[in-house]
Structures are given as C-alpha cells and as structure tokens.
Amino acid sequence: MATTASVTLDVADPTAARRFYTAAFGLDTQIRLRTSEAPTTGFRGFTLALTVSQPATVDSLIGDALDAGATSLKPAAKSLWGYGGVVQAPDGAIWKVATSAKKDTGPATRQIDEMVLLLGVADVTVSKRFYVGQGLAVAKSFGRVYCEFHGGAGPFKLALYRRRALAKDLGVSPDGTGSHRLLIGGDAGPFTDPDGFAWEATAPAQRAHAV
C-alpha cells in the first residue's frame, strides 16, 4: 500500500518559516521547507488541518499562531461539527485547527491528535480513481464530496475535497493560479495528479506531534 511520507512547503525564507511553525504549532520535523518564490496568486488549492481534543486547545494554538505572525481567515467558533478556526501563515499556507468536541474537559495543551493534508480538487471521483491507481488505499469516501486515504509513515494523512467547497470552508475565494507551492513525498511518486499537485519519491519524515 502506497503512503504519504512528507509534505514540503515552498517558502521565501525557510528559517523564518521554521521559526513560525515551531512557535505557532510546535511543528519541527513534521513539515519540510524549501526555498522557492514560484509565482502564485490567490488560493493555492490546499489546507493543512490540525485536529485537537478540545476548544481550549484550538484557541491556544490559533492564539500562538497569531502571535507568531499569522493572519486570521476565520476566527475560532462553534459549528454543527464542533469548534475550529482558520489562519494563514506568513508564507501563505492556510492552516485549519479544529476539534469535534464542543466542551473543554481540561486545561489547554499543545497536543495535536491528527494532521491532514487536504487537497482541493475539481472532481473528487476522478482524483480518487487516480490516487487508487497510484497505490493509495481509501479509508473514507463520501461520493463526490470527500475522500480520505489510509495514513502511512509520514506525519500527515491525505484527503480530497472539492476545491470550491474547501475554499468556502476556509473563508477564501476559490480562484487562484500558478504554483501550489507544495510538494508531496511518498513511495508512490514521482507524478503529478490531475489538479497539478506534484509528488516526489521520498523517505518518510518523522511522525511526531506538537507538545
């Protein structure tokens, strides 16, 4: 079974980006960074989602991200599915922090339970078929709306969502052109998927969570 081993973000200043991700989310080896100023405008077509145990932890991580220089796209709030908010890192990547819990059960922590790389795609069915053909195994699938693949050795699970629906959920316009400024690593690569997301063959990054 093919797996997602790593996520690399293209950033103008890797040192500054590393400083931000450490301060905001406690992430270090979980994401990779490389220097690039590839042209891009608008929505890059993906988000990195952090799932935590309770609203207090959502507030804590989002607060730390804002203090470290992030921009708020959606303030943390309750919804039908739980509680969460969205921020944009100084390098332009969009991050969502959320929990299915609606009440706190203890003090806030910086523990991240799950990390998901969510790709916004034109057609979930087409992209799911493509990825299954590359050897990834489906864990959850909801028709043309959403698909999640089994995780591997890397820190992030991979999931697919309709691009317009993802943009709406994040509070941004779905319009965007140019580079995704994202490179996905895995034992299925190298290839480029139907929506232009590039993969490389790579060894796993360390699977670890924020503390």
From TrEMBL:
Highest taxon in the source lineage: Bacteria
Annotated InterPro entries: Glyas_Bleomycin-R_OHBP_Dase
Annotated PANTHER family: BLR2520 PROTEIN
Protein name as annotated: Glyoxalase
